[in-house]
């Protein structure tokens, strides 16, 4: 059984370039704001792995932000948002690849209040979480599984959030190579929104970088263990009414049934489904973000110019 699990883990870890994704469109109560509208976007779909980098706020760094929408999208407090992730900016979310199915993990949503969402610099401080979903012990599914199945990810803006301009940070963490740090792949972009109506909630905030550490159990995590007991990183989401969360630490994880989110600490068993993929190489060298090493790997072990082969774990090294 250990041998089978090891093979399954190794196969799942070989999903590479196809796993990349970008949050590139969103809907407000079922109405699309338009592809790339109201968003700050990179042209490249790669992840952020260094949780101490400034790029962990709204992307950037190795994925330069070059598409800045001039528009701010009105969002009523209490609205249902559908975040559309796609593989690249050329992908159609209706028919194309969302993200490779092996890239399982949580999805979280943060807000940061700014004076003008279209022009404000990306803040490092002042972020608070409004939604999270991790592993569902009842169904054996992750938030990313729901994103893929629904071709979009739904959540709700709390009704008590104070009106005004915000950057809305939607984040997906792929855990397929997170057994060592750096290894977890963070995919996030920020939308420019103006919340209307609402209340007067002004919750405690965290910083990006600062909200996560490389040793956090939600960042350094072996996806291929059983039973799964996963702790979502960062603070707990704000709530309308009652005591607001003030600390990032928790032993609970998120489970979801339909649109409702609850907390549980009961672990569940699961099995890992292997994924297959192909990778492109050039002249005997592996392309950017392709596999370049690991147990059982027989392909290229050197990378194209500008990239180096980095070991993520015993089964998977990647050109970065």
Automatic annotation (TrEMBL):
Q: Which PANTHER family match?
A: ENDO-BETA-1,4-GLUCANASE D, PUTATIVE (AFU_ORTHOLOGUE AFUA_1G12560)-RELATED
According to the UniProt entry, its GO molecular function terms are: cellulase activity; cellulose binding; metal ion binding; monooxygenase activity
Q: Which Gene3D superfamilies match?
A: 2.70.50.70
The family annotation for this protein states: Belongs to the polysaccharide monooxygenase AA9 family.
Q: Which InterPro entries match?
A: AA9, AA9_LPMO, CBD, CBD_sf
**Domain of life of the source:** Eukaryota
**SMART domains (UniProt xref):** fCBD
- Output the SUPFAM superfamilies linked to this UniProt entry: Cellulose-binding domain (SSF57180)
Using the record's annotation, list all stretches that form the CBM1 domain. Answer: 284-320
Name the segments for region: Disordered. Answer: 242-286
Know anything about its domains from the record? Answer: Has a modular structure: an endo-beta-1,4-glucanase catalytic module at the N-terminus, a linker rich in serines and threonines, and a C-terminal carbohydrate-binding module (CBM).
Query: Where is it mainly found?
Result: secreted
This chain's function reads: Lytic polysaccharide monooxygenase (LMPO) that depolymerizes crystalline and amorphous polysaccharides via the oxidation of scissile alpha- or beta-(1-4)-glycosidic bonds, yielding C1 and/or C4 oxidation products. Catalysis by LPMOs requires the reduction of the active-site copper from Cu(II) to Cu(I) by a reducing agent and H(2)O(2) or O(2) as a cosubstrate.
In its UniProt entry, what is this protein called? AA9 family lytic polysaccharide monooxygenase
Q: Does the keyword 4Fe-4S apply?
A: no
Q: Where in the cell is it found?
A: Secreted
Instruction: State which Enzyme Commission number(s) the record gives.
Output: 1.14.99.56
Q: Supply the source organism's classification.
A: Eukaryota, Fungi, Dikarya, Ascomycota, Pezizomycotina
* Biological process according to GO: cellulose catabolic process
Report the top EC class in one word: oxidoreductase
Q: What are the boundaries of the signal sequence?
A: 1-19
User: What keywords are annotated for this sequence in UniProt?
Assistant: Carbohydrate metabolism, Cellulose degradation, Copper, Disulfide bond, Metal-binding, Monooxygenase, Oxidoreductase, Polysaccharide degradation, Secreted, Signal
List where Low complexity composition bias occurs: 243-286
Provide GO CC annotations from the record.
Answer: extracellular region
């Amino acid at each position: 059984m250990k041998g089978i699990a090891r093979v399954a883990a190794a196969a799942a870890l070989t999903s590479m370039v196809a796993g990349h994704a970008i949050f590139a469109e969103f809907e407000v109560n079922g109405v699309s704001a338009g592809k790339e509208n109201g968003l700050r976007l990179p042209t490249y779909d790669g992840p952020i792995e260094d949780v101490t980098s400034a790029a962990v706020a709204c992307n950037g760094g190795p994925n330069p932000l070059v598409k800045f929408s001039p528009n701010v999208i009105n969002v009523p407090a209490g609205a249902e948002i559908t975040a559309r992730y796609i593989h690249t900016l050329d992908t159609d979310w209706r028919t194309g690849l969302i993200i490779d199915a092996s890239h399982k993990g949580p999805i979280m949503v943060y807000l940061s209040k700014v004076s003008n969402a279209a022009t404000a610099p990306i803040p490092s401080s002042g972020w608070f979480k409004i939604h999270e979903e991790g592993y569902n012990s009842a169904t054996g599914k992750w938030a990313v599984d729901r994103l893929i199945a629904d071709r979009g990810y739904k959540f709700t803006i709390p009704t008590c959030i104070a009106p005004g301009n915000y950057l809305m940070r939607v984040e997906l963490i792929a855990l397929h190579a997170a057994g060592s740090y750096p290894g977890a792949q963070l995919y996030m972009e920020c939308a420019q929104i103006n919340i209307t109506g609402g209340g007067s909630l002004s919750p405690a905030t965290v910083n990006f970088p600062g909200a996560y550490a490389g040793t956090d159990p939600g960042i350094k995590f072996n996806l291929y263990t059983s039973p799964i007991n996963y702790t979502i990183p960062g603070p707990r989401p704000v709530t309308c009414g009652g005591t607001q969360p003030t600390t990032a630490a928790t032993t609970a994880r998120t489970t979801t049934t339909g649109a409702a989110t609850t907390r549980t600490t009961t672990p569940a068993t699961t099995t890992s489904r292997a994924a297959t993929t192909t990778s492109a190489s050039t002249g005997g060298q592996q392309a950017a973000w392709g596999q370049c090493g690991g147990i059982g790997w027989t392909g290229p072990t050197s990378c194209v110019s500008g990239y180096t082969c980095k070991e993520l774990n015993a089964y998977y090294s990647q050109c970065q």
